Sequence to fold (470 residues):
Amino acid sequence: MQQHIEALKDAKACPLWHDPEVMPEVLPSLATDEKCELLIVGGGFTGLWAAMQAKERKPDADIILIEQTFVGDGASGRCGGFLSTSLAHGETNVAHRFSAEADRLQELGTQNMKELLETLDRYNIDARYEKTGVMDVALDPDSAVDMHSEYKQAKANGEDVVWFDKDAVRKQVNSPTFFGGLWHRRGQDGVVDPGRLCWGLKEVLLNQLGVRIFEETRLLGVEPVGKEGMRANCEGGVIHSEKILLATNAFTSSIKKIRRSVIPVWDYQIATEPLTGEQLEKIGWGQSRHALGDYSNMFHYFRMTKDNRITYGGGAAVRYYFNRGIDEKFAEAPDLYEQLAQEFFATFPQLDDVRFSHKWGGIIATSTRFCMVPGVTYDGRLAWSVGYTGHGVGASRFGARIGIELLGYQPSDILEMQFVTAKVLPWAPEPFRWLGVKFTQNALIKADKNGGKRGLWLKFLDMLGLGFTC
Ligand SMILES: Cc1cc2nc3c(=O)[nH]c(=O)nc-3n(C[C@H](O)[C@H](O)[C@H](O)COP(=O)(O)OP(=O)(O)OC[C@H]3O[C@@H](n4cnc5c(N)ncnc54)[C@H](O)[C@@H]3O)c2cc1C
Fold:
């Protein structure tokens, strides 16, 4: 049997972060009709942070949070755990779309990160945060040259970046595929265990802040009642509330505007067993522990965990399935896990005795602007914040803030920002959507094989600001 297939043989089809030893029990589902001030739908980071911040702003607010399966079962409990200050998917996207608000977004991102970490401290939530920054690694000499120019530009702009040439980067993390490294320290950027972050927030909301949480409770539809109320039809009962926040990411929404603004893109990951001291020494990564991303269009992201595993995901193993496929069956993707395992061993051939313990997939909510899409309707009674496009661990706390401010919880001047008010281009209907994503993905893979050189289609998309990325 080939090495990568053998190494995957006993991998559990389950997110690494869903560790049964730390996962709390699933709470009872809704069984009767209920009433509250604010109903939050979705038990991922957006929903959890929205409940937290609404309580901070109005401690006596009566809040219910419902989740169709269990808290952390969506993207939040399946992600890579890269915690970034950026609110809009990185500087390039900001420069392209929100250049007039770049400084303000930077300031708000820094404030968001500071408050996020302070909240973890305040409530003693152990999300296994490590301040690692993120290092991009160049996979060929030409990319290393481009990356070095980027480094000089970033340095000139006053950014906190460090350059490693080929020898230096391999001393940080020893891979024969690395030709340069650009370490973005960006303040507090780092990694977390996203599962522990979800369970920690859930515990505080439930036991310290008095938020009522119903799991295994699916929202079926919403409708306004008179001029002041909302009615949410859920499995198990009806919830009457003054306001509703939809924190439902890329899951199919009954609200057309949400449905058209995001598409579900599946992204896959594998995780190794904890590395032994000897294995760690072979790659040297145990010293620096930078979170890594390769410098390409279809980039891999990989990191170490507190117990010295490596999680490895992304690359060309991302998929959009026709007509918004979100069925759990898409998590079974043996060929994609094999592809990832093969790429892992190409990156770290010294780890030829390592085995994978977990493999899993999750849904990224991709918007046409590649960052969050907030919105509000029914005279300020129903709001949403979705579409972080692979960059939502930190940004979702800010998305949650926008969501609750749109519902009237201490609204501030952020609601006037173009970032919040700008109209978002909807995705094209099928089959154009599927064809467009497929075609673009192939063009990106081709560009990566071609030293990053973008073909005509990608140049055209760049012109429109639609060069696809996760
Ligand atoms: C594989 C993967 C890797 C990623 N890696 C990173 C990373 O390293 N760094 C980063 O910043 N971002 C990353 N992301 C993106 C990040 O995880 C998301 O942007 C973020 O978690 C979104 O949080 P959310 O609460 O909006 O959505 P989710 O966590 O998806 O939560 C939405 C919840 O709503 C529930 N729901 C939906 N519909 C209903 C309904 N009708 N009734 C009741 N409940 C409902 C769902 O079950 C789900 O739990 C990654 C995503 C994936 C999938």
Summary: The longest strand covers residues 356-367. The two ends are 33 Å apart (CA to CA).
